[in-house]
Design goal:
Largest sheet: 3 strands, antiparallel
Number of domains: 1
Number of strands: 5
Helix content: 25-40%
Shape: flat
Radius of gyration: 17 Å
Order of helices and strands: HHHEEEEE
Strand order of the largest sheet: 1-2-3
Length: 104
Amino acid sequence: MPVSLLKLPFLVRALVVTELDYQEIFLISICSRRSNCLVKSARINVHKIAFLFGECHGYNTFDIGVVTDMLQWFPVTSLLHVPKLALENTLTVNLGLNYKADTK
């Protein structure tokens, strides 16, 4: 049975969010405005955000992660640069926080 995270008491919500991995916290923060406020109110301390540029299968990659004091890399998200998409139609993608991206 699923439990709505936003319907839990404030203290329980904050404890649940602080126990998540960095990647899960990032994904929750872009779900909705309320979940973004939930992540901000949890006041999670991030040691250091690092960016890595690389190449995978001929495409440029951009990785974002967190580096701890012990120099451990925890991935948060990654992006793949594709110079041209093979789309016949234009799509509008609704992202979190009322941001719309048009792909052509």
